[in-house]
Known about the structure:
Helices cover 75% and strands 0% of the residues. By secondary structure, the protein is an all-alpha fold.
Amino acid sequence: MPEADAELAAVAAAGELSQGSLRSAERYLRIAERGLASAPPSRRHHAEVLFGVVRMLADGRGGNLPARNEAGQRLLAAADVLEAGQAGLGDELRALALGQIGDSETWAGHLDQSETHLEQALELARRARRPYLELTALVYRAELELSRRFSRAEELAGQAINLAEQHGWTDDLFTGFAAMTLGSAVAWQGRLAEAEPWIERALRIFAVEASPAAMGGHYVSGQFELGRGRVTAALAAFRTAERLVGPHPLARPLQAWLLHAMVLPGDWVQAEAMLTGLTERGRERTEIRIATAALRLAQHAPAAATAELAPVLAGTIQVGWQSWLIEAYLLEAIARDTDGDPSAAGHALERALELAETDGALMWFLMHPVASLLDEHALRGTAHPVLLARIRQLASGKAPVLPAPVLSALQPLSDREMRVLRYLPTHLSASEIAVELSVATSTVKTHMRSLYAKLGAHSRGEAVQTARALGLLALSA
């Protein structure tokens, strides 16, 4: 390939990336970078933008988040020049760059900044009428919400799936990401049967196991299998993810999930060997301490478990994924109960419920079933009776029995609200529900706000969960 043909080399690099070959892509990018200086003046800016886009995507694929962010910032500056020459293209480039910047910020834990940039990317993509850019922004927003609120992640991933299907992108990589995110969000809310086909769909799309995308699919699959109690399948999924992980932000938490999968079937020798192989700094990470506490409980050493959890619960070590705290408080409750301290156990369990009320992560209660502890807590009283009933229902597979005061405090739903409620478990948007009901979109949104208020929900997913717990909707299959 001619050294000076920067654009052709950048296109070749993009092709290699699409085939999952980062090493070959980097080789072509080096050729493209050398060729930029000799590009014709009339094409130089175009070549620089093309190179910048592929460079940004390659940095993301290689897990180099700071470099990906910097490349995105350079493209934002280039968008102004591009806008001056070709109307409309500036918005497209901004949407692409902001999506990549926002996703990098998600993985770096800067969630508020990420949300701002991803919302801007989504708005620009829609304004430019570029549905594929809209799809990628929706997927990145949904992935962000996996760190904050699973019901919102479910809603956004569902919108992404609908958009992909409208345009025939059924087997596209980002459709796979959307299915993976949707499956993860639904599974974490405890609806495992509903999650399974989405996770399977993602894995089918990520059929080439060597791709980084396949790693994420197996990672989510492992969590799902742990929730079902299928530890052998979970360990196999995590081992596959470990083989594929490469330079990815999930590499570190994957170690904790492997440890979880070793603990549950009683493979303590392998678990202890894994802990021994970690550095001292690695052993001090929040998720490793929590997984170690689970190991100590399995070994009937509750005091050792509470010692592992102490700095996590005291806030003296940094917590990345906030949902880890739910598991930490749940394990603390189990340890205190085992040690004969029901008051401390109840306090820890109430804190776990408080956090689960916020982000909707109920699968921890399936991974660590504590039916008797939950029953005792229900008798003592809780500030989260609907959630506790939902968790007990998930653990038993039976319909929940809500306390009478909770039922009597609920305001009755109108017929029109009930009609809207029946559409909430679908992934139809408010405007699409309006079409189905032959009413204005504003009317549907008004009913949705009223439903959330009456059901004490903060999102669509929470409203569906509460309505199912109350028998207003059929339980998911």
